[in-house]
């Protein structure tokens, strides 16, 4: 049970990351109605790869964050024979997601990083025992 703590945290973080990124996309497209709160997200977007249309930029960020969440979930669910590589992929997904989503990714990124660290720590404990 203790060796699965990191795996569970990473899977929960990935699911949370999917909800956050798709929820943001719902705000942008008007699927989730608000009192124009999403306007700050839309027009606060910085250009990416020369693209300056705010909705396109946020769609790129949302897609990237969703993909990173899926990568983190897959790395946690199907741990390779080298657990260290899977843990590094999970940690990298958490950090890269923070770059794409900013402060919205904080809970997910924290769960990914802690999950990856616990996987590495549990790997060291199981190999030394």
What does this protein look like?
By secondary structure, the chain is mostly helical. It has one domain. The chain contains five helices and no strands. Helix 3 packs antiparallel against helix 4 (83-101).
Number of strands: 0
Element order, helices and strands?
HHHHH
Largest sheet: none
Summarize model confidence as the mean pLDDT: 78
| Helix fraction bin | over 70%
Detail the poorly predicted runs: none
Morphology call: elongated
Tally of individual domains: 1
The Rg value, from CA coordinates, equals 16 Å
List the topology elements.
Elements: H1 5-29, H2 38-43, H3 54-77, H4 83-101, H5 106-128
Helix pairs in contact: 1-3, 1-5, 3-4, 4-5
List its salient traits.
75% helix; 129 residues
Give a quick precis of the structure.
With 129 residues, the protein is mostly helical. It has one domain.
């Amino acid at each position: 049970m203790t060796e699965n703590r990191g795996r569970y945290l990473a899977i929960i973080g990935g699911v949370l990351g999917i909800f956050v990124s798709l929820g943001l996309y719902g705000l942008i497209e008007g699927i989730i109605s608000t009192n124009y709160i999403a306007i700050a997200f839309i027009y606060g977007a910085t250009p990416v790869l020369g693209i300056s249309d705010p909705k396109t930029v946020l769609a790129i960020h949302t897609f990237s964050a969703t993909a990173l969440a899926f990568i983190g979930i897959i790395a946690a669910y199907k741990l390779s024979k080298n657990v260290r590589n899977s843990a590094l992929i999970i940690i990298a997904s958490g950090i890269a997601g923070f770059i794409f989503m900013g402060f919205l990714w904080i809970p997910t990124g924290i769960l990914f990083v802690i999950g990856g660290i616990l996987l590495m720590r549990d790997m060291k404990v199981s190999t030394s025992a």
